[in-house]
Amino acid sequence: MRESSYAKEVIGPDDVTFSHVWLTGGFLLFGIVAVAYNAWCLKKSPERSFRQGCVFVCCAVMYLGLTLYVSVWVLVHAIDNG
Q1: 34 touches 63 (CB < 8 A)
Q2: Count of domains forming the chain
Q3: Chain segment 9-51, per-residue pLDDT in tens
Q4: Does residue 45 lie within any of the structural domains?
Q5: What's the predicted TM-score (pTM) here?
Q6: Which of 1, 20, 30, 60 lies in disulfide reach of 74, CB 3.0 to 4.6 Å?
C-alpha cells in the first residue's frame, strides 16, 4: 500500500519551507531598502565622488550575489523537503 503524498504537498506555518520563504522575503525587502537608501544618499549629496559611487556599486553587487545565493539555497531546501 502506498503512502499518501498529500501532506508533503501542503505548506503550513510549521513547515521549514514556509520559514525559508519568509526569510527570503525579509532579506529581499531589507536589501531593496538598503540599495534604495544608498542611491538616495548618492543623489542627495552635493558632491558626488568616485568613492561614493564605488560604495554604492559594491553594496548593490554584494546584495545581488547574496540574493542569488539565498534564492538557490531556499530552492534546494524546498525541493529536498517537498
Answers
A1: yes
A2: 1
A3: 555 445 556 666 777 778 788 888 888 888 888 888 888 788 8
A4: yes
A5: 0.51
A6: 20
Cell of 53: 559611487
> Range of 66's domain?
32-82
Largest CA distance in the chain: 73
Positive or negative: CA dihedral 36, 19, 80, 9:
negative
Q: Quick one: pLDDT at residue 9? A: 54
* Contact by Cβ (8 Å): 18, 12: yes
Q: Is the residue at 20 inside a domain?
A: no
- What would the mean pLDDT of 64-80 be, rounded to a whole number? 77
Residue 71's Cα: distance from chain center in Å? 6
Distance CA 30, CA 52 (A): 20
pLDDT at 1: 45
